[in-house]
Structure to design on (583 residues):
Protein backbone atom coordinates (compact mmCIF):
# COMPACT_ATOMS: atom_id res chain seq x y z
CA UNK A 1 0.00 0.00 0.00
CA UNK A 2 2.69 2.47 0.99
CA UNK A 3 4.65 2.21 -2.23
CA UNK A 4 1.58 3.03 -4.30
CA UNK A 5 0.13 5.77 -2.17
CA UNK A 6 3.29 7.85 -2.30
CA UNK A 7 3.25 7.85 -6.11
CA UNK A 8 2.00 10.75 -8.18
CA UNK A 9 -1.52 9.35 -8.27
CA UNK A 10 -1.94 9.77 -4.53
CA UNK A 11 -5.58 10.26 -3.72
CA UNK A 12 -6.21 11.74 -0.26
CA UNK A 13 -9.93 11.06 -0.49
CA UNK A 14 -9.20 7.35 -0.91
CA UNK A 15 -6.98 7.38 2.18
CA UNK A 16 -9.82 8.82 4.24
CA UNK A 17 -12.28 6.41 2.67
CA UNK A 18 -10.11 3.40 3.51
CA UNK A 19 -10.34 4.34 7.18
CA UNK A 20 -14.13 4.28 7.26
CA UNK A 21 -14.67 1.24 5.05
CA UNK A 22 -16.47 -1.77 6.54
CA UNK A 23 -13.99 -4.46 7.48
CA UNK A 24 -14.60 -8.19 7.22
CA UNK A 25 -14.25 -8.58 10.99
CA UNK A 26 -17.05 -6.08 11.55
CA UNK A 27 -19.42 -8.11 9.39
CA UNK A 28 -18.35 -11.28 11.21
CA UNK A 29 -19.08 -9.53 14.51
CA UNK A 30 -22.61 -8.54 13.58
CA UNK A 31 -23.40 -11.93 12.06
CA UNK A 32 -22.15 -13.49 15.30
CA UNK A 33 -24.73 -11.50 17.27
CA UNK A 34 -27.34 -13.75 15.66
CA UNK A 35 -25.66 -16.92 16.91
CA UNK A 36 -27.43 -16.98 20.34
CA UNK A 37 -30.75 -17.77 18.62
CA UNK A 38 -29.22 -21.09 17.58
CA UNK A 39 -26.44 -21.76 20.07
CA UNK A 40 -27.74 -20.45 23.40
CA UNK A 41 -31.52 -20.04 23.06
CA UNK A 42 -31.87 -20.23 26.84
CA UNK A 43 -29.79 -17.12 27.31
CA UNK A 44 -31.71 -14.68 25.14
CA UNK A 45 -32.76 -12.60 28.14
CA UNK A 46 -29.10 -12.14 29.03
CA UNK A 47 -28.31 -11.42 25.38
CA UNK A 48 -30.87 -8.61 25.27
CA UNK A 49 -29.28 -7.13 28.39
CA UNK A 50 -25.88 -7.36 26.75
CA UNK A 51 -27.17 -5.55 23.66
CA UNK A 52 -28.58 -2.80 25.87
CA UNK A 53 -25.37 -2.49 27.92
CA UNK A 54 -23.40 -2.43 24.67
CA UNK A 55 -25.45 0.47 23.33
CA UNK A 56 -25.05 2.27 26.64
CA UNK A 57 -21.26 1.80 26.51
CA UNK A 58 -21.23 2.93 22.88
CA UNK A 59 -22.95 6.17 23.85
CA UNK A 60 -20.32 6.75 26.54
CA UNK A 61 -17.56 6.08 24.02
CA UNK A 62 -18.62 9.21 22.13
CA UNK A 63 -17.67 11.24 25.20
CA UNK A 64 -14.81 9.29 26.74
CA UNK A 65 -13.18 7.64 23.74
CA UNK A 66 -13.77 10.19 21.00
CA UNK A 67 -14.06 13.56 22.71
CA UNK A 68 -11.77 12.88 25.68
CA UNK A 69 -14.33 13.90 28.29
CA UNK A 70 -14.62 11.67 31.35
CA UNK A 71 -18.06 11.10 32.79
CA UNK A 72 -18.82 9.17 35.95
CA UNK A 73 -22.50 9.94 35.85
CA UNK A 74 -23.58 8.64 32.47
CA UNK A 75 -26.39 6.62 34.08
CA UNK A 76 -28.31 9.86 34.45
CA UNK A 77 -29.16 9.74 30.72
CA UNK A 78 -29.83 6.00 30.84
CA UNK A 79 -32.16 6.56 33.78
CA UNK A 80 -34.00 9.46 32.19
CA UNK A 81 -34.58 7.32 29.11
CA UNK A 82 -35.68 4.33 31.21
CA UNK A 83 -38.13 6.28 33.36
CA UNK A 84 -39.46 8.16 30.34
CA UNK A 85 -40.15 4.96 28.43
CA UNK A 86 -41.57 3.29 31.55
CA UNK A 87 -43.86 6.18 32.37
CA UNK A 88 -45.07 6.53 28.80
CA UNK A 89 -46.07 2.86 28.78
CA UNK A 90 -47.52 2.92 32.26
CA UNK A 91 -49.70 5.89 31.42
CA UNK A 92 -51.45 4.20 28.57
CA UNK A 93 -49.17 4.31 25.54
CA UNK A 94 -47.55 0.90 25.34
CA UNK A 95 -46.50 1.04 21.70
CA UNK A 96 -42.79 0.18 21.90
CA UNK A 97 -41.19 1.91 18.90
CA UNK A 98 -42.77 5.32 19.28
CA UNK A 99 -42.18 5.08 23.04
CA UNK A 100 -38.53 4.27 22.39
CA UNK A 101 -38.09 7.24 20.08
CA UNK A 102 -39.92 9.61 22.39
CA UNK A 103 -37.88 8.48 25.42
CA UNK A 104 -34.59 9.00 23.61
CA UNK A 105 -35.72 12.44 22.46
CA UNK A 106 -36.49 13.30 26.09
CA UNK A 107 -33.04 12.04 27.13
CA UNK A 108 -31.45 14.10 24.34
CA UNK A 109 -33.33 17.21 25.46
CA UNK A 110 -32.16 16.55 28.99
CA UNK A 111 -28.60 16.20 27.64
CA UNK A 112 -28.93 19.54 25.88
CA UNK A 113 -30.06 21.18 29.09
CA UNK A 114 -27.20 19.62 31.07
CA UNK A 115 -24.62 20.49 28.40
CA UNK A 116 -24.74 24.18 29.30
CA UNK A 117 -23.21 23.29 32.67
CA UNK A 118 -20.85 20.62 31.35
CA UNK A 119 -19.06 22.76 28.75
CA UNK A 120 -18.04 25.26 31.41
CA UNK A 121 -15.95 22.85 33.43
CA UNK A 122 -13.31 20.22 32.79
CA UNK A 123 -11.10 17.56 34.35
CA UNK A 124 -11.76 16.69 38.00
CA UNK A 125 -14.48 19.28 38.41
CA UNK A 126 -16.33 17.72 35.50
CA UNK A 127 -16.03 14.22 36.97
CA UNK A 128 -17.39 15.49 40.28
CA UNK A 129 -20.27 17.31 38.62
CA UNK A 130 -21.25 14.27 36.54
CA UNK A 131 -21.28 12.12 39.69
CA UNK A 132 -23.20 14.77 41.60
CA UNK A 133 -25.77 15.20 38.88
CA UNK A 134 -26.43 11.48 38.68
CA UNK A 135 -26.89 11.23 42.47
CA UNK A 136 -29.12 14.28 42.41
CA UNK A 137 -31.46 12.98 39.73
CA UNK A 138 -31.46 9.56 41.41
CA UNK A 139 -32.57 11.15 44.67
CA UNK A 140 -35.28 13.15 42.89
CA UNK A 141 -36.62 9.92 41.39
CA UNK A 142 -36.52 8.36 44.85
CA UNK A 143 -38.47 11.24 46.34
CA UNK A 144 -41.27 11.31 43.80
CA UNK A 145 -42.50 7.94 44.97
CA UNK A 146 -45.99 8.51 43.58
CA UNK A 147 -44.70 8.86 40.04
CA UNK A 148 -41.62 6.67 39.93
CA UNK A 149 -42.42 4.10 42.58
CA UNK A 150 -39.27 5.18 44.39
CA UNK A 151 -37.49 2.29 46.06
CA UNK A 152 -40.04 -0.22 44.86
CA UNK A 153 -39.33 0.57 41.26
CA UNK A 154 -41.71 1.55 38.51
CA UNK A 155 -44.32 -1.18 38.30
CA UNK A 156 -47.17 -1.72 35.91
CA UNK A 157 -45.25 -1.03 32.70
CA UNK A 158 -47.28 -2.82 30.02
CA UNK A 159 -45.83 -3.00 26.56
CA UNK A 160 -47.97 -3.69 23.54
CA UNK A 161 -46.72 -6.22 21.00
CA UNK A 162 -44.29 -4.82 18.44
CA UNK A 163 -46.21 -3.98 15.24
CA UNK A 164 -49.18 -5.45 17.11
CA UNK A 165 -47.75 -8.90 16.38
CA UNK A 166 -44.70 -9.78 18.44
CA UNK A 167 -45.31 -10.00 22.16
CA UNK A 168 -42.48 -9.66 24.65
CA UNK A 169 -42.14 -13.31 25.76
CA UNK A 170 -40.56 -14.68 28.92
CA UNK A 171 -37.76 -16.36 26.93
CA UNK A 172 -36.56 -12.98 25.74
CA UNK A 173 -36.76 -13.87 22.07
CA UNK A 174 -38.68 -10.74 21.07
CA UNK A 175 -36.65 -8.69 23.55
CA UNK A 176 -33.36 -9.75 22.00
CA UNK A 177 -34.50 -9.21 18.41
CA UNK A 178 -35.87 -5.80 19.38
CA UNK A 179 -32.80 -4.75 21.40
CA UNK A 180 -30.41 -6.08 18.78
CA UNK A 181 -32.08 -4.22 15.92
CA UNK A 182 -32.24 -0.99 17.93
CA UNK A 183 -28.60 -1.35 18.96
CA UNK A 184 -27.47 -2.15 15.43
CA UNK A 185 -29.30 0.84 13.95
CA UNK A 186 -27.89 3.06 16.68
CA UNK A 187 -24.44 1.67 15.96
CA UNK A 188 -24.81 2.62 12.29
CA UNK A 189 -25.73 6.14 13.35
CA UNK A 190 -22.84 6.44 15.81
CA UNK A 191 -20.45 5.01 13.26
CA UNK A 192 -21.51 7.71 10.82
CA UNK A 193 -21.09 10.39 13.50
CA UNK A 194 -17.53 9.36 14.36
CA UNK A 195 -16.62 9.08 10.67
CA UNK A 196 -17.99 12.54 9.85
CA UNK A 197 -16.14 15.88 9.86
CA UNK A 198 -17.78 16.44 13.26
CA UNK A 199 -16.32 13.12 14.46
CA UNK A 200 -12.89 14.27 13.31
CA UNK A 201 -13.30 17.49 15.27
CA UNK A 202 -14.24 15.44 18.35
CA UNK A 203 -10.99 13.55 18.02
CA UNK A 204 -9.26 16.87 17.55
CA UNK A 205 -10.63 18.03 20.91
CA UNK A 206 -9.50 14.80 22.53
CA UNK A 207 -6.02 15.17 21.05
CA UNK A 208 -5.47 18.84 21.75
CA UNK A 209 -7.87 21.23 23.43
CA UNK A 210 -5.44 24.10 22.97
CA UNK A 211 -5.05 23.81 19.23
CA UNK A 212 -8.75 23.56 18.42
CA UNK A 213 -9.61 27.25 18.97
CA UNK A 214 -6.47 28.10 16.98
CA UNK A 215 -7.98 26.42 13.91
CA UNK A 216 -11.25 28.24 14.43
CA UNK A 217 -13.22 25.47 16.15
CA UNK A 218 -16.08 26.53 18.44
CA UNK A 219 -15.38 23.88 21.09
CA UNK A 220 -18.30 24.57 23.40
CA UNK A 221 -20.78 24.23 20.58
CA UNK A 222 -19.20 20.95 19.49
CA UNK A 223 -19.26 19.61 23.05
CA UNK A 224 -22.92 20.50 23.40
CA UNK A 225 -23.76 18.59 20.24
CA UNK A 226 -21.86 15.50 21.36
CA UNK A 227 -23.57 15.62 24.76
CA UNK A 228 -26.94 15.64 23.05
CA UNK A 229 -26.05 12.74 20.76
CA UNK A 230 -24.52 10.73 23.58
CA UNK A 231 -27.49 11.40 25.88
CA UNK A 232 -29.87 10.38 23.11
CA UNK A 233 -28.30 6.94 22.71
CA UNK A 234 -27.79 6.42 26.44
CA UNK A 235 -31.48 7.25 26.86
CA UNK A 236 -32.34 4.86 24.08
CA UNK A 237 -30.48 2.10 25.92
CA UNK A 238 -32.36 2.97 29.10
CA UNK A 239 -35.67 2.93 27.27
CA UNK A 240 -34.87 -0.47 25.77
CA UNK A 241 -34.12 -1.74 29.24
CA UNK A 242 -37.43 -0.43 30.62
CA UNK A 243 -39.43 -1.82 27.73
CA UNK A 244 -37.86 -5.28 27.57
CA UNK A 245 -38.01 -5.87 31.33
CA UNK A 246 -41.28 -3.91 31.74
CA UNK A 247 -39.84 -2.52 34.94
CA UNK A 248 -37.58 0.36 36.01
CA UNK A 249 -35.60 0.15 39.23
CA UNK A 250 -33.98 3.09 40.95
CA UNK A 251 -30.59 1.59 40.13
CA UNK A 252 -31.09 2.74 36.52
CA UNK A 253 -29.86 6.08 37.90
CA UNK A 254 -27.25 4.73 40.29
CA UNK A 255 -23.60 5.58 40.60
CA UNK A 256 -22.88 1.89 40.26
CA UNK A 257 -24.42 1.79 36.80
CA UNK A 258 -22.34 4.82 35.78
CA UNK A 259 -19.19 3.13 37.04
CA UNK A 260 -20.01 -0.21 35.43
CA UNK A 261 -20.51 1.26 31.97
CA UNK A 262 -17.15 3.01 32.25
CA UNK A 263 -15.57 -0.30 33.29
CA UNK A 264 -17.11 -2.02 30.25
CA UNK A 265 -15.77 0.65 27.93
CA UNK A 266 -12.26 0.64 29.39
CA UNK A 267 -12.19 -3.15 29.48
CA UNK A 268 -13.05 -3.35 25.79
CA UNK A 269 -11.06 -0.30 24.68
CA UNK A 270 -12.28 3.29 24.36
CA UNK A 271 -12.34 5.22 21.11
CA UNK A 272 -12.80 2.19 18.87
CA UNK A 273 -16.58 1.80 18.51
CA UNK A 274 -16.42 -1.92 19.20
CA UNK A 275 -14.62 -1.59 22.52
CA UNK A 276 -17.79 -0.81 24.44
CA UNK A 277 -19.69 -3.59 22.70
CA UNK A 278 -17.09 -6.24 23.46
CA UNK A 279 -16.49 -4.90 26.95
CA UNK A 280 -20.22 -5.06 27.66
CA UNK A 281 -20.42 -8.65 26.44
CA UNK A 282 -17.46 -9.75 28.56
CA UNK A 283 -18.71 -7.87 31.61
CA UNK A 284 -22.25 -9.20 31.44
CA UNK A 285 -21.26 -12.80 30.71
CA UNK A 286 -18.65 -12.71 33.46
CA UNK A 287 -21.18 -11.35 35.91
CA UNK A 288 -23.70 -13.99 34.94
CA UNK A 289 -21.24 -16.87 35.22
CA UNK A 290 -19.34 -15.68 38.28
CA UNK A 291 -22.50 -14.75 40.14
CA UNK A 292 -23.75 -18.28 39.54
CA UNK A 293 -20.62 -19.70 41.10
CA UNK A 294 -20.35 -17.32 43.97
CA UNK A 295 -22.91 -14.54 44.15
CA UNK A 296 -21.20 -12.65 46.96
CA UNK A 297 -17.71 -12.42 45.61
CA UNK A 298 -18.16 -11.86 41.92
CA UNK A 299 -16.85 -8.32 42.21
CA UNK A 300 -13.56 -9.80 43.40
CA UNK A 301 -13.12 -11.54 40.05
CA UNK A 302 -14.28 -8.52 38.13
CA UNK A 303 -11.75 -6.40 40.00
CA UNK A 304 -9.01 -8.88 39.24
CA UNK A 305 -9.94 -8.96 35.55
CA UNK A 306 -9.94 -5.18 35.39
CA UNK A 307 -6.54 -4.83 37.08
CA UNK A 308 -4.99 -7.43 34.79
CA UNK A 309 -6.43 -5.88 31.66
CA UNK A 310 -5.34 -2.36 32.61
CA UNK A 311 -1.80 -3.45 33.51
CA UNK A 312 -1.19 -5.56 30.44
CA UNK A 313 -3.54 -3.88 27.94
CA UNK A 314 -3.77 -0.19 28.85
CA UNK A 315 -5.86 0.46 25.75
CA UNK A 316 -8.31 -2.28 26.56
CA UNK A 317 -8.80 -5.65 24.94
CA UNK A 318 -9.35 -4.23 21.46
CA UNK A 319 -6.38 -1.89 21.83
CA UNK A 320 -4.22 -4.89 22.74
CA UNK A 321 -5.50 -6.89 19.80
CA UNK A 322 -4.89 -4.01 17.39
CA UNK A 323 -1.31 -3.66 18.66
CA UNK A 324 -0.77 -7.41 18.27
CA UNK A 325 -2.08 -7.39 14.70
CA UNK A 326 0.14 -4.41 13.85
CA UNK A 327 3.17 -6.22 15.22
CA UNK A 328 2.42 -9.40 13.28
CA UNK A 329 1.90 -7.42 10.11
CA UNK A 330 5.12 -5.46 10.38
CA UNK A 331 7.05 -8.69 11.08
CA UNK A 332 5.66 -10.27 7.94
CA UNK A 333 6.48 -7.36 5.66
CA UNK B 1 -0.66 54.36 1.63
CA UNK B 2 0.02 50.86 2.85
CA UNK B 3 -2.92 48.83 3.95
CA UNK B 4 -2.68 47.79 7.62
CA UNK B 5 -3.57 44.13 8.18
CA UNK B 6 -3.26 44.00 11.95
CA UNK B 7 -2.66 46.67 14.53
CA UNK B 8 -2.67 46.99 18.28
CA UNK B 9 -2.92 50.24 20.17
CA UNK B 10 -2.07 50.78 23.80
CA UNK B 11 -2.25 47.10 24.68
CA UNK B 12 -1.66 46.49 28.39
CA UNK B 13 -1.54 43.31 30.45
CA UNK B 14 -0.26 42.83 33.98
CA UNK B 15 0.14 39.65 35.99
CA UNK B 16 -0.10 41.12 39.47
CA UNK B 17 2.62 43.76 39.59
CA UNK B 18 4.48 42.24 36.65
CA UNK B 19 4.00 44.10 33.39
CA UNK B 20 3.89 41.48 30.63
CA UNK B 21 2.60 43.90 28.01
CA UNK B 22 3.01 47.62 28.48
CA UNK B 23 1.47 50.03 26.00
CA UNK B 24 2.10 47.87 22.94
CA UNK B 25 1.25 49.61 19.67
CA UNK B 26 2.15 47.80 16.49
CA UNK B 27 1.01 48.12 12.89
CA UNK B 28 1.55 45.23 10.54
CA UNK B 29 1.02 46.13 6.86
CA UNK B 30 -0.46 43.70 4.39
CA UNK B 31 2.13 41.24 3.08
CA UNK B 32 4.80 42.42 5.51
CA UNK B 33 7.46 40.19 7.07
CA UNK B 34 8.07 41.42 10.60
CA UNK B 35 10.27 39.82 13.22
CA UNK B 36 9.61 40.13 16.92
CA UNK B 37 12.76 39.69 18.98
CA UNK B 38 13.79 40.11 22.57
CA UNK B 39 15.33 38.21 25.46
CA UNK B 40 13.49 35.36 27.18
CA UNK B 41 10.61 36.66 29.24
CA UNK B 42 10.32 39.86 27.21
CA UNK B 43 6.65 39.11 26.55
CA UNK B 44 6.80 38.04 22.91
CA UNK B 45 4.59 34.97 23.27
CA UNK B 46 2.30 36.90 25.60
CA UNK B 47 1.81 39.45 22.86
CA UNK B 48 0.80 36.68 20.44
CA UNK B 49 -1.58 35.32 23.09
CA UNK B 50 -3.12 38.76 23.43
CA UNK B 51 -3.44 39.25 19.68
CA UNK B 52 -5.09 35.85 19.19
CA UNK B 53 -7.42 36.22 22.16
CA UNK B 54 -5.93 33.45 24.26
CA UNK B 55 -5.29 36.15 26.86
CA UNK B 56 -7.55 39.13 27.48
CA UNK B 57 -5.79 42.51 27.67
CA UNK B 58 -6.38 44.81 30.66
CA UNK B 59 -6.75 47.68 28.23
CA UNK B 60 -6.03 48.55 24.63
CA UNK B 61 -7.41 47.67 21.24
CA UNK B 62 -6.70 45.09 18.55
CA UNK B 63 -7.80 45.79 14.99
CA UNK B 64 -7.77 43.24 12.16
CA UNK B 65 -8.29 44.88 8.78
CA UNK B 66 -11.01 47.40 9.57
CA UNK B 67 -12.59 45.49 12.45
CA UNK B 68 -12.03 45.92 16.16
CA UNK B 69 -11.57 42.31 17.31
CA UNK B 70 -10.63 43.01 20.94
CA UNK B 71 -13.79 41.27 22.17
CA UNK B 72 -13.87 38.47 19.58
CA UNK B 73 -13.10 34.98 21.01
CA UNK B 74 -10.05 33.05 19.70
CA UNK B 75 -11.92 30.83 17.25
CA UNK B 76 -13.73 33.86 15.84
CA UNK B 77 -10.42 35.62 15.21
CA UNK B 78 -9.16 32.59 13.31
CA UNK B 79 -12.31 32.66 11.17
CA UNK B 80 -11.53 36.29 10.35
CA UNK B 81 -8.01 35.40 9.24
CA UNK B 82 -5.77 35.88 12.27
CA UNK B 83 -3.91 32.61 12.76
CA UNK B 84 -0.97 31.53 14.90
CA UNK B 85 1.45 28.67 15.42
CA UNK B 86 2.93 27.57 18.72
CA UNK B 87 6.45 27.58 20.08
CA UNK B 88 5.88 24.17 21.68
CA UNK B 89 4.31 21.67 19.26
CA UNK B 90 0.56 21.94 19.69
CA UNK B 91 -0.53 19.16 17.38
CA UNK B 92 -2.89 16.18 17.35
CA UNK B 93 -0.57 13.24 18.26
CA UNK B 94 -2.87 10.42 17.18
CA UNK B 95 -4.25 12.05 14.06
CA UNK B 96 -2.37 11.80 10.80
CA UNK B 97 -1.19 15.06 9.21
CA UNK B 98 -3.79 14.50 6.50
CA UNK B 99 -6.55 14.28 9.12
CA UNK B 100 -5.23 17.25 11.08
CA UNK B 101 -5.00 19.54 8.07
CA UNK B 102 -8.31 18.27 6.65
CA UNK B 103 -9.85 19.15 10.00
CA UNK B 104 -8.46 22.68 9.79
CA UNK B 105 -9.72 23.01 6.21
CA UNK B 106 -13.17 21.77 7.24
CA UNK B 107 -13.26 24.24 10.13
CA UNK B 108 -12.45 27.09 7.79
CA UNK B 109 -15.11 26.02 5.31
CA UNK B 110 -17.66 25.70 8.09
CA UNK B 111 -18.09 21.97 7.50
CA UNK B 112 -16.59 20.58 10.70
CA UNK B 113 -19.92 20.65 12.55
CA UNK B 114 -21.54 18.26 10.06
CA UNK B 115 -22.18 14.92 11.80
CA UNK B 116 -24.51 13.28 9.29
CA UNK B 117 -22.17 13.09 6.30
CA UNK B 118 -19.11 10.94 5.93
CA UNK B 119 -15.71 12.66 5.99
CA UNK B 120 -14.47 11.06 2.73
CA UNK B 121 -17.34 12.71 0.87
CA UNK B 122 -15.49 16.01 1.35
CA UNK B 123 -13.12 15.47 -1.53
CA UNK B 124 -12.20 19.13 -1.98
CA UNK B 125 -11.20 19.47 1.66
CA UNK B 126 -9.01 16.37 1.47
CA UNK B 127 -7.41 17.52 -1.78
CA UNK B 128 -6.73 20.96 -0.39
CA UNK B 129 -5.22 19.47 2.77
CA UNK B 130 -2.93 17.26 0.74
CA UNK B 131 -1.88 20.21 -1.41
CA UNK B 132 -0.90 22.21 1.68
CA UNK B 133 1.03 19.23 3.07
CA UNK B 134 2.80 18.71 -0.25
CA UNK B 135 4.03 22.29 -0.44
CA UNK B 136 5.59 21.78 3.00
CA UNK B 137 7.05 18.44 1.87
CA UNK B 138 4.88 16.43 4.22
CA UNK B 139 3.05 14.57 1.45
CA UNK B 140 4.99 11.35 1.97
CA UNK B 141 4.26 11.09 5.68
CA UNK B 142 0.71 12.39 5.63
CA UNK B 143 -0.84 9.03 6.56
CA UNK B 144 1.25 8.33 9.65
CA UNK B 145 0.18 9.28 13.15
CA UNK B 146 1.62 12.71 13.93
CA UNK B 147 3.45 11.37 16.99
CA UNK B 148 5.61 9.19 14.72
CA UNK B 149 6.84 12.14 12.67
CA UNK B 150 10.38 13.48 13.05
CA UNK B 151 10.57 16.62 15.16
CA UNK B 152 11.38 18.87 12.21
CA UNK B 153 8.39 17.48 10.31
CA UNK B 154 6.19 18.25 13.29
CA UNK B 155 7.41 21.85 13.20
CA UNK B 156 6.41 21.99 9.52
CA UNK B 157 3.01 20.52 10.38
CA UNK B 158 2.53 23.35 12.88
CA UNK B 159 2.72 25.73 9.93
CA UNK B 160 0.68 23.49 7.60
CA UNK B 161 -2.25 23.44 10.00
CA UNK B 162 -2.09 27.23 10.30
CA UNK B 163 -1.95 27.70 6.52
CA UNK B 164 -5.02 25.51 6.11
CA UNK B 165 -6.99 28.25 7.86
CA UNK B 166 -6.06 30.60 4.95
CA UNK B 167 -4.74 33.36 7.20
CA UNK B 168 -4.57 37.02 6.29
CA UNK B 169 -2.17 37.49 9.17
CA UNK B 170 0.07 34.68 10.38
CA UNK B 171 1.82 34.82 13.74
CA UNK B 172 4.68 32.32 13.97
CA UNK B 173 5.94 31.69 17.48
CA UNK B 174 9.53 30.48 17.02
CA UNK B 175 8.79 28.24 14.05
CA UNK B 176 12.27 26.68 14.26
CA UNK B 177 12.30 26.23 18.05
CA UNK B 178 14.32 23.15 18.95
CA UNK B 179 15.36 22.45 15.36
CA UNK B 180 19.14 22.12 14.86
CA UNK B 181 20.65 25.15 13.15
CA UNK B 182 21.59 23.20 10.03
CA UNK B 183 17.96 22.14 9.52
CA UNK B 184 16.28 25.42 10.37
CA UNK B 185 17.11 26.76 6.89
CA UNK B 186 14.61 24.35 5.38
CA UNK B 187 11.96 25.54 7.79
CA UNK B 188 12.52 29.15 6.96
CA UNK B 189 12.56 28.34 3.28
CA UNK B 190 9.01 27.14 3.87
CA UNK B 191 8.23 30.36 5.73
CA UNK B 192 9.69 32.38 2.86
CA UNK B 193 7.38 30.56 0.45
CA UNK B 194 4.27 31.72 2.29
CA UNK B 195 2.06 33.66 -0.12
CA UNK B 196 3.19 37.27 -0.34
CA UNK B 197 -0.23 38.74 0.46
CA UNK B 198 -0.19 37.10 3.91
CA UNK B 199 1.28 39.33 6.61
CA UNK B 200 3.74 37.42 8.78
CA UNK B 201 4.95 38.30 12.25
CA UNK B 202 7.48 35.82 13.57
CA UNK B 203 9.37 35.38 16.80
CA UNK B 204 12.92 34.11 16.34
CA UNK B 205 16.14 34.05 18.31
CA UNK B 206 18.59 33.34 15.51
CA UNK B 207 19.71 36.81 14.35
CA UNK B 208 20.99 35.60 10.99
CA UNK B 209 17.54 34.25 10.20
CA UNK B 210 15.88 37.41 11.45
CA UNK B 211 18.06 39.68 9.33
CA UNK B 212 17.54 37.48 6.29
CA UNK B 213 13.75 37.21 6.39
CA UNK B 214 12.40 40.28 8.13
CA UNK B 215 11.74 43.59 6.45
CA UNK B 216 11.25 45.19 9.85
CA UNK B 217 12.17 44.17 13.36
CA UNK B 218 10.40 44.91 16.63
CA UNK B 219 12.52 44.58 19.76
CA UNK B 220 10.76 43.86 23.04
CA UNK B 221 12.24 44.06 26.52
CA UNK B 222 10.36 43.54 29.80
CA UNK B 223 6.93 43.69 28.24
CA UNK B 224 7.58 46.89 26.30
CA UNK B 225 8.66 47.77 22.80
CA UNK B 226 12.22 49.02 22.98
CA UNK B 227 12.57 49.99 19.36
CA UNK B 228 11.19 49.18 15.91
CA UNK B 229 13.02 49.55 12.64
CA UNK B 230 14.62 48.05 9.56
CA UNK B 231 17.29 45.39 10.08
CA UNK B 232 19.99 47.98 9.41
CA UNK B 233 18.57 50.39 11.95
CA UNK B 234 18.25 47.64 14.53
CA UNK B 235 21.73 46.24 14.04
CA UNK B 236 23.26 49.68 14.43
CA UNK B 237 21.09 50.69 17.36
CA UNK B 238 23.12 51.17 20.53
CA UNK B 239 20.28 50.36 22.93
CA UNK B 240 19.56 47.08 21.17
CA UNK B 241 23.22 46.13 21.24
CA UNK B 242 23.37 46.81 24.94
CA UNK B 243 20.18 45.14 26.02
CA UNK B 244 19.76 42.33 23.60
CA UNK B 245 22.48 41.50 21.16
CA UNK B 246 25.21 41.74 23.78
CA UNK B 247 28.80 42.56 23.07
CA UNK B 248 29.49 39.20 21.44
CA UNK B 249 27.44 39.85 18.33
CA UNK B 250 28.80 40.95 14.95
Amino acid sequence: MNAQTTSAAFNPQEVLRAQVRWRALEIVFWVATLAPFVLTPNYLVLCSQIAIAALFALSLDLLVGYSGIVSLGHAVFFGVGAYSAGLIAKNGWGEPISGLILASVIAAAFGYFISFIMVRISHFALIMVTVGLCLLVGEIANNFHDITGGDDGLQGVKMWPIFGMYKFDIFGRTAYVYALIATFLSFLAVRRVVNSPFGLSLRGMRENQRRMPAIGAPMKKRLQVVYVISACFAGLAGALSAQTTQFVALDALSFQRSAEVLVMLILGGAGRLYGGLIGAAIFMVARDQLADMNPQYWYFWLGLLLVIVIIFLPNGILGGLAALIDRLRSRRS
Amino acid sequence: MTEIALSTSGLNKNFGSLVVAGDISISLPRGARYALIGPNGAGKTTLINLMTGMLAPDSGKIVLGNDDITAVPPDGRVKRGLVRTFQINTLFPNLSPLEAVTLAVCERRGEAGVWWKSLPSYKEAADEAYAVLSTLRLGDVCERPTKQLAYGQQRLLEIAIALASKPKVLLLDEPAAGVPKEESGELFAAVADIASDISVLFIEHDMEVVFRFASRIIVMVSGRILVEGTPDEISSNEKVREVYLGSGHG
